[in-house]
Amino acid sequence: MSTVVSATARLAGQRLERSRASRQFEGQGFRNTAPVGPGIQGNPLPILGEYFFGGTQRTPPGPLPVEDPRGTWARAPDTGLRVTWLGHSTMLLEVDGARVLTDPVFGDRASPLSFAGPRRFHAPPVSIEALPDLDAVLVSHDHYDHLCRSTIQALAKRRVPFITALGVGRHLEAFGVAPELITELDWWEHHRVGPVGFTAAPSQHFSGRGLGDRNKTLWASWVLTTDKHRLFFSGDTGLTSEFEEIGRRHGPFDLVMLEVGAFHPSWGTIHLGPENALKAHAMLGGGTLMPVHWGTFNLAMHAWDEPAETLVRLASEQQVRLFTPGLGRSLEPSRVEGATPWWRDVGERMLVPRTAP
Predict the structure, then answer these.
(1) Among 146, 196, 207, 266, which residue has the least CB neighbours within 10 Å?
(2) Can you give the pLDDT at residue 10?
């Protein structure tokens, strides 16, 4: 028992030492390059009124269409790059022979509680057990809608490598992931798993899972590279000029996966939303844009489909190529001509009067 305690204490000490050595660590926690303020900007009363009395359709008016991707997974992608959106920021990326799972959340709620908190609009397209063999799991930061205890506990049994930001490993270890399978990266640090290189890059956000642990772990955006492909995954972030540096160092990208949901003008410094996602996309150097972080949880005051609708409209005006696969739809981005607004069918099915057979 004492040996286990000593090993745990040693790892905790090493983790703290690495955190304190980071340029992003200041005082008792991590910080953004530019100050973003304590949270909600301005008078919170209108926001509370909007939350409790707003008339927007924050949940879908009917069941969302979900496909089973296992048949597609049985054959390799012809182009070397295939993406399966499993909801929110969870994606199975198949890139040049490797499979990477991002921000896996298969639990029913994005919450520390099993009986309260934002609940899924849809079931996961597949169970964790039905996932194919994985080469790596990428966790961008420690918020509940990106790091799910029950999901990590199940994935830990697979003994797959985990890549994450500084400090997040303490959560992964607590959830059962073997320490030797965890790699924590500071911004601009790099690690390779098989054919895929992972680089932690700047983002503008915050961290914490409860009282007293705000910003004790780092948040990051992520660059994934192989000999043939370059991908960018934003995690959670507000708009930051650092995207230009990421584009200069690592672009151009074949696929840019940016968060567009859970946004509000009052927290525009920590989430992108559709308008800022397009600005970030341009700063990164363009490429095919895939919106993520929407359509699974009610995390803001906007209508459930507003992020996608706004993005499609603005992207059309700006001639940005969008990739919008449906839930569980496994597609190769280079073989898709443009956006597929699958979410519109959900509302139409409910609004069109049914006729007698």
Answers:
(1) 266
(2) 73
Bridge partners, 330 (sequence order): 84
Q: Which residue, 278, 282, 241, is CA-closest to 260?
A: 278
User: For residues 143 and 207, is the Cβ–Cβ distance under 8 A?
Assistant: yes
d(CA 205, CA 24): 12
Confidence (pLDDT) at 3? 54
- In angstroms, the CA 300 to CA 262 distance is 5
Q: Is a pLDDT exceeding 50 seen at residue 350?
A: no
CA angle 167–112–37, rounded 5-degree value: 60
Percentages (nearest 5) of helix, strand, coil residues in the chain:
30, 20, 50
Q: What is the CATH number of domain 45-350?
A: 3.60.15.10
pLDDT tens across 200-244, in order?
999 999 999 998 999 999 999 999 999 999 999 999 999 999 999
179 prior amide bond cis, ω within 30: no
- Rounded Cα distance between 137 and 103, Å, is 8
**Predicted pLDDT of residue 13:** 82
Classify strands 190-193 and 196-201 as parallel, antiparallel or unpaired.
Answer: antiparallel
8 Å CB contact between 254 and 161: no
